[in-house]
Design goal:
Elements: E1 10-13, H1 22-36, H2 43-47, H3 61-65, H4 74-89, H5 98-107, E2 111-115, H6 120-129, E3 138-140, H7 153-162, E4 169-173, H8 176-184, E5 188-191, E6 207-208
């Protein structure tokens, strides 16, 4: 992005679970698949990887594929899950207050960014569907960095793209991994938990709020 933005203020939004509550929907899908297989979904283990792209984590499809008598391969189960998740996500609206905050902040001169550990096509497709893609000054996803959250790379890349110092930025996150990434990037973060991430540790966050409805970013900048 050209121009001097060193004095501008920037709001950085996570995507999954913050703009679109795909996380709660995906947990429900896994629970359904596990119940059909006569297994119990390990939500506690799943919560540890929400908001990140941890390569060594056990994928939820693996215990299903390993089940005695299972005829589907790991790849088939994962593919079926992603198709179901995509179909359900297409029907989801933006979370409370998000679109209003983005539009209001944009009108007031804020730079707007999305920083997500998800794939570009997933994020871009839904932001386009929600009518938000044209409001962004930059979009950083998994493909743009070496390490996903909880590493700080995604948020540091946002700052680099916009030419904004960390002190002029504020991040919105719904997961513990996202809050940790923001902290490691030296950027203040507001936690907005969803029903899936509600009981995570957000002690590193500047504040924890139930939603972004009526949120006033001016209160966080001098």
């Amino acid at each position: 992005m050209s121009g001097d933005n060193s004095d501008k203020k920037c709001l950085i939004f996570d995507f999954d679970g913050l703009i679109l509550d795909t996380e709660t929907s995906e947990v429900q899908i896994w629970r359904e698949l596990y119940t059909q297989a006569g297994l119990t979904f390990d939500l506690k283990a799943h919560l540890k990887v929400i908001g990140s792209d941890i390569p060594h984590a056990i994928h939820p499809a693996q215990p299903l594929a390993n089940r005695e008598g299972e005829t589907r391969t790991f790849e088939q189960i994962r593919r079926d899950f992603h198709q179901t998740a995509y179909n359900r996500a297409e029907k989801l609206a933006a979370m409370e207050g998000v679109a209003e905050l983005i539009n209001r902040a944009k009108a007031n001169g804020y730079l707007i960014a999305v920083g997500s550990s998800s794939a570009f096509n997933w994020v871009h497709t839904h932001l386009t569907r929600l009518g938000l893609i044209d409001r962004l000054d930059t979009l950083v996803t998994l493909e743009n960095v070496e390490k996903a959250k909880p590493a700080p790379d995604i948020f540091l890349k946002v700052l680099e793209n916009l030419g904004v110092p960390a002190k002029n930025a504020l991040i919105f996150e719904d997961s513990e991994n996202g809050v940790l990434a923001a902290h490691r990037a030296g950027i203040r973060v507001i936690a907005i938990p969803n029903s899936t991430t509600l009981h995570m540790d957000f002690s590193l966050a500047t504040a924890v709020l139930p939603s972004l409805a009526q949120f006033d970013p001016d209160l966080y900048f001098l």
